[in-house]
User: What shape does this take?
Amino acid sequence: MRGSVHRRSSGANGWLLSLPALLLLLVAASGPLVIVAIYSFLEPGDYSGVRWIFSGDAWFRILFERDIFDQTVSLADANLSIFWRSVKLSLATTLVTFALGLPTAWFIATRPARSRAIWLFLITIPFWTNLLIRTFAIMEVIRNQGLLNTALIKIGLITDPIQILYTDTAVLIGMAYVYLPLMVLPLFAAIDRFDFNLIEAGYDLYASRMQILRRVILPIIRPGIVAGCILVFVPSLGAYVTPRVLGGGKNMMIGNFIELQFGQGQNWPLGAALSMVLLIVVLGALLIYTRVASKEDPHG
Amino acid sequence: MGKNRAFDVTTLPGFTAIAILAFVLLYAPIVTLVVYSFNGGNSVNLWGGFSLKWYKIAWENEAVQGAAVRSLIIAVWASVIATSVATLAALGTTRRKRFRGQTFIYVMINQPLMVPEIVTAVALLIFFSSVKLATGYSGLGYLILAHSAFCVPFAYLPIRARLEGMDTSMEIAAADLYATPWQTFRHITLPLLMPGVLAGAMLAFVISLDDVIITEFVKSAGQDTLPTYMLGQLRRALTPEVNAISTALLVLTVLILTAFFIITKKRG
Assistant: This one.
């Protein structure tokens, strides 16, 4: 009997026990993705939905448009500007959160053990707080009659409120605000394992602070940096709530553009094709991340 | 060592200042939101004295009541379902020899963390709209199913972490004393695993309660949850009612998280 509790035909049992979870995820998560892939190759229906006729048109229309009269093909500028805005804002969000997140993670990791848990908890609360609530909160700060403009007018720096809300800047501020904890947490995990004696060794060898940061600290915590950047970049690229609330109707990102195809746009195949593009880009980024992580940190 | 020296190796120039700034930036908007939920005035901008007026208005608003009840029903069902299947999957994938397809199971379970939510939302919209058409059923079942699925990884992670920290000696002892596998599971494994299961259920509950995008796409008419109700309010003039609802949700989240940390800390 000894040792038989968990050893018996472990593969078959493993599969059997995982089966309910797999079925649930197949029905309500992975399976429907296959339908999206299929829909992207169909023709749009008259009002919504699809007609079951094979067509590559949706994929074509992601980047190009055809003139209705003379059939000339040109780049779809409107779409391209949405893609460019999404990539630009996601990269900017990643940079801003890194610039704020690295010192924050460093600060938490160098606190004494007892207060460290409290600082970490303070980062975790916004992380788990409803994204919509946090977006509302930042909206109330940056709106024309909001905290920021009122304060700037009071101290006499400006006379009229600056229009931030419903601009790209608003979306950037909002995304940096809601995704900052996603940058801090992996950076903290990396710095927490960092051996501070290395810094002392560096100073003993007459390195400057900048040299220590660039030549000692950053290379060692690189897996944490990569993880943080991916964790911020990926949800930024697929963001929907923040650009919708803070960008208004005009400053769309890919997520809002996809939604449009299922709402007013009524072009389900185009929406499906755009979803597939977003999915492929995101999975590509995650694949690069796992490559980097497994190469540099075989135990993590 | 190094502690009493004037030159502390752990400080870098400007880092502490930026960190403090980051914490201020992180909390100032949330604090403002909470403060204005107690605004006696009618606007989200002008302070009109302390009052619980907007809590009363939100509490008596039938649309908010309906959305709150719906949010709770969905979150309870989703966390129960997700935690049950995640517990089984965690038992199936930890503390045993690696088996063929284990990586596939990991990928499947963590899939909701990797796929952008908008893509899943669109996929479920397409799938469920044809199921609705075929069956005629348009109840909360779709939302419960969708929420259960994306909650699975959040329930799975703490349960798996707990299992990995448990050794098998107690279970082997029980088996040596002729306990049946079911008795061993019921009286040894499950009680030991319970903190992990509770932690998993709490995370799943919070995640379900917070969801906006998937709910927005899957819900039928009249199936607003609190977050989608709040998103809908954006089209009208915002009142501090939204702040009151947000604050209530915030308090609930913080309470659950505090309980979560107490439960997971006890392990050590």
Observations:
- The domain at 62-265 of chain B is CATH 1.10.3720.10 (MetI-like fold).
- The CA atoms of residues 90 and 160 of chain B lie 5 Å apart.
- Chain B has one domain: 62-265.
- Chain B touches chain A through 98 residues (CB under 8 Å).
